[in-house]
Amino acid sequence: MLFVQRPTSFTPSDFAALGSGGIAYVKPVIHEGQPAYGIFGADGTAMAVATSRDLALAAIKQNDLEPLDAH
C-alpha cells in the first residue's frame, strides 16, 4: 500500500518555490506614469517592464520561461 504524506500548510515562500526558475507572470502595471506590463518571477520579484502584453510574453518565452497571467 502506498502512503502519501501531504504538508498541512504552505507558506508564501513554499508556493513561490513551486514555480521558481520556470514560470514568469505578466500583469498590468503603471511605469513612469504610463500603462505597461510587468514581468515577475514566481517569488514576486520584478524582472522587467514591457510596453505591451505581447512584448512581455515574447520576452518571457525568449528566456525559456513559461508565461502566466497574474490576475
Helix-strand layout with pairing:
Blueprint: H1 12-19, E1 23-31, E2 34-41, E3 46-50, H2 53-62, E4 66-69
Parallel strand pairs: 1-4
Antiparallel strand pairs: 1-2, 2-3
Describe this protein's structure.
The protein has 71 residues and is α+β, with helices and mostly antiparallel strands. It is built from two helices and four strands, in the order αβββαβ. It has helices spanning 12-19, 53-62; strands spanning 23-31, 34-41, 46-50, 66-69. It has a four-stranded mixed β-sheet with strand order 3-2-1-4, covered by helices on one side. The chain is globular and about 45 Å long.
Largest beta sheet: strand ordering: 3-2-1-4
Helix and strand pattern = HEEEHE
Strand content: 35-45%
Which bin fits the share of residues in helices?
A: 25-40%
Q: Enumerate how many helices there are, as a single number.
A: 2
What spatial form do the alpha-carbon principal axes imply? globular
Give the integer mean of the pLDDT values.
81
Radius of gyration: 15 Å
Which class of secondary structure composition applies to the elements?
A: alpha+beta
The total count of strands amounts to: 4
Query: Which segments are poorly predicted (pLDDT under 50) over 5 or more consecutive residues?
Result: none
- C-alpha termini separation: 40 Å
Task: Provide the descriptors you would attach to this structure in a database record.
2 helices, 4 strands, alpha+beta, 71 residues, 37% strand
